[in-house]
Design a protein that fits this description.
about 90 residues, alpha+beta, four-stranded mixed β-sheet, 4 strands, about 25% helix, about 20% strand, globular
Length: about 90
């Protein structure tokens, strides 16, 4: 009973990075080539560099989250969220 109580009290912190790439390919590639998955759980990107079809390059250990209407509304991508694959979603 006591061990179950200790598990409930364990708090895990969420490591975030918010960055504005100013649509710069070099800034974007620098972010991708770093050891982000060891340092952060979520990365919030403003003004990402876009590649063909309006996609955002994403580091290997992350999943890219886009806005819901990205493809149907034909709007410009202005932000993105990278979620570390170690996080259960």
């Amino acid at each position: 009973m006591m061990s179950q109580h200790k598990e409930l009290l364990t708090v895990k912190s969420l490591r975030l990075l918010q960055i504005n790439h100013n649509k710069s390919e070099s800034a974007h590639l620098e972010s991708i080539n770093g050891k982000l998955s060891e340092l952060y759980d979520l990365i919030l990107i403003q003004e990402p560099h876009l590649i063909k079809f309006g996609n955002i390059r994403t580091p290997f250990n992350f999943r890219q989250i886009y806005s819901r209407g990205r493809l149907t509304l034909k709007t410009t991508v202005r932000s993105g969220i990278w979620v570390n694959k170690n996080i259960s979603t």
